[in-house]
From TrEMBL:
It comes from Profundibacterium mesophilum KAUST100406-0324. One of its GO terms (molecular function) is L-tyrosine-2-oxoglutarate transaminase activity. NCBIfam families: PRK09257.1. Residues 27-389 form the Aminotransferase class I/classII large domain. It holds the Pfam family Aminotran_1_2. The gene is tyrB. Keywords: Aminotransferase, Coiled coil, Pyridoxal phosphate, Transferase. Its cofactor is pyridoxal 5'-phosphate. The keyword Coiled coil applies. Residues 301-328 form a coiled coil. It comes from the Bacteria. One of its GO terms (cellular component) is cytosol. This is Aromatic amino acid aminotransferase. SUPFAM superfamilies: PLP-dependent transferases.
Length: 394
């Protein structure tokens, strides 16, 4: 039987991690995988997470199953963080999922169950798991233009032109903030234009929000999502706690379906629970409980926010430093987009040959499309990267 299987394409980022590990050079720099690192190159367990875990260890009296939707307090707390107080609870259906990836996968499955012919529109480029899962599920999808390679900014005219092809009932996948892989994001005015278009087209927005707090701050990073949530009758939101709580391996995500009325909300909630049941029954609980404990406790919440803010400020400072170094070395402002981008990633705009040259000559590892992880840098390595970018002729 297993001899009938076909070889599956390797995950490019995981393959890159492997070649980084095998590189014997001491001064190699990993800007590949999308994991936050501090100046020492460590992905820390956040202080509030440690404290919440200690509390759970001490106070938890059972590990019996939760509900199919997970712990309701988790959904409530995380929904509050994402949506604020603007969306009526009667519109919200939500289930805990294994990571943001689990939420995206189940969101797609919910779409397929409700409307098998609905086309999902994804940005070009996007996080490669989006098309990969859609392909696996056999769902129709199309790309819309998103990134202007020359300006290294959002190609908003191209995006709106492509989205004018969206049909009634189609789904448009948007990154809530900190677009992966480009780092280029919509302004609030542009979010409004997208909301108006989707409303007119009677299309469904699906927001993937995996980096809230990594861009302009917890509130600003959720502004586009809130605008969509309050103005569109229906929406899907897939949230990940991997990055902003630093609990990558705990697999902590949430899938939210917003409905326009009570009956639809109940139907959505029942179907979300059903999907959990078919796929894995009960969702993982530990990470969800940690998140809930932090968000519901004023002291832990304040400490978590402070540490997240330090991380965000650190990434912004690295962006500024890299843009400055490149301004001096290139005698131009053509790399200023690095300071304008937000989140962990920027797409540099280097050719695959230039990416390869930086790897070969300077031991700098970035993804082949020249996505670099800003959090893989520190004040010492920024000038090294800047010089390598110039030497490679980017
Ligand atoms: N969406 C995007 C855009 C991401 O970059 C990621 C993480 N790489 C995720 C979702 C999901 O992350 P996880 O499954 O680890 O929570």
């Amino acid at each position: 039987m297993f001899d009938q299987l076909k070889q599956q394409p390797a995950d490019k980022i995981l393959a890159l991690m492997q070649s980084f590990r095998e590189d014997p050079r001491d001064d190699k720099i990993d800007l590949g995988v999308g994991v936050y690192r501090d100046a020492e190159g460590v992905t820390p367990v956040m202080r509030a997470v440690k404290a919440a875990e200690a509390r759970i260890l001490e106070q938890q009296t059972t590990k019996a199953y939760t509900g199919l939707a997970g712990e309701p307090g988790y959904a409530k707390a995380l929904t509050g963080l994402i949506l604020g107080a603007d969306v009526a609870p009667s519109r919200i259906a939500a289930v805990a999922t294994p990571g943001g990836t689990g939420a995206i996968r189940q969101g797609f499955e919910l779409i397929r169950m409700a409307s098998p012919d609905a086309r999902v529109w994804i940005s070009a480029p996007t996080w490669p798991n989006h098309p990969s899962i859609l392909k696996y599920l056999g769902m129709p999808f199309s790309e819309y233009r998103y990134f202007d390679d020359a300006a290294r900014d959002v190609d908003f005219a191209g995006m709106m032109e492509d989205l004018s092809q969206v049909a009634e009932g189609d789904v448009v996948l948007l990154h809530g903030c900190c677009h992966n892989p480009t780092g280029a994001n919509l302004t609030l005015g542009q979010w409004q234009s997208v909301a108006d278009l989707l409303l007119e087209k009677r299309a469904i927005p699906f927001i993937d929000i995996a980096y809230q707090g990594f861009g302009d701050g917890l509130e600003s990073d959720a502004a586009g999502t809130r605008l969509i949530a309050t103005q569109l009758p229906q929406a899907l939101i897939a949230a990940s706690c991997s990055k902003n709580f630093g609990i990558y391996r705990e697999r902590t995500g949430l899938l939210i379906a917003l409905s326009s009325d009570d009956a639809m909300q109940k139907l959505a909630q029942g179907n979300l629970a059903y999907l959990n049941r078919q796929n894995f029954s009960f969702p993982p609980d530990h990470g969800a409980r940690v998140v809930m404990t932090i968000l519901d406790d004023p002291e832990l919440r304040a400490d978590w926010k402070a540490e997240l803010e330090e991380m965000r400020a650190g990434m912004l400072a690295l962006r500024e430093q890299l843009a400055d170094e490149l301004r001096q070395r290139s005698n131009s402002d053509r790399f200023d987009f690095i300071a304008r981008h937000r989140g962990m990633f920027s797409r540099l705009g280097a050719t695959p040959e230039q990416v390869e040259a930086m790897r070969r000559d300077s031991g700098i590892y970035m993804v082949g499309d020249s996505r670099l992880n800003i959090a893989g840098l520190n004040a010492r390595t920024v000038p090294i990267l800047a010089q390598a970018i110039i030497d490679a002729g980017v």
